[in-house]
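U., I forgot to send this yesterday:
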Amino acid sequence: MPYSPFRKFSVEQWGDLADNASAPLSERELKELRGINERASITEVENVYLPLSRLLSFYVSSVQALNNQTSNFLKDNTPKVPFIIGVAGSVAIGKSTSSRILQTLLARWPGHPRIDLINTDGFLLPTAELEKRNIMHRKGFPESYNRRALLAFLSDIKSGRRNVEAPVYSHLRYDIVPGKYNTVDQPDVLIVEGLNVLQASATASEPGVFVSDFFDFSIYVDAEEDVIKQWYVSRFLTFRDSVFKQENAYFKHFADLSEEQAIATASEIWDTINLVNLRENIHPTRQRADLILHKNADHAIDGVQLRKL
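Result:
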């Protein structure tokens, strides 16, 4: 495809770009970074994430140098502005694992040791507000987020402000944790991970500032719909036997489902909510990413696409 906006690489081709570097991760470290039912291996880290972190390191260094040169040109002392990476993709596709691996690897390249990671789940509207608006069934859709707060947060980060707070979300409670925040204090790099972070607007006709306007680089984690559904159902079964059994779990009523009932319940949730969100809001933003990581049915990355500059 000579006229595609992307360069396409097999994992082997992409892995060659690591320039013979070895992944500075142990198996123990990687185990702590993996999400539920994730299978990222040291080999995948070396062949996919290490070259990606090397490329991103070049991007960060270039932007930092440009910022310094611009500051010198303007003869001012503009505060350091973090390099922001957006990571998008479906529920259950492994965005968090990819983000954590990149965070760890980027921190080990010279010149930008402070890497923060924020999940946009913290900017979901509280459960009480979603119920008030009668959109609990639309949780994760664009309208379920406090978009104004998220944009204000990113604007403060890009303005060089110190100690910017992001709300904390509890997957156990399935809600925002009142009074609890993560503080972002002028990191070298901030990774922002979420379902709809590459969306150009909350509605098709809405103009204005978008979350993706604040990104210096963006990544979309991709897989086929039927494959993601299998991962979602598998994760639901894992939660049924673990998280859902906790006394204060929001989905405690699912803990006693039989396996057949759990599979049917998870499938219905996927088909009526998550698949709709994927098709309507998430997947259409895929082509807006700077880089696409495609996964096969084994959860392994089998292809990389990099947007041409």
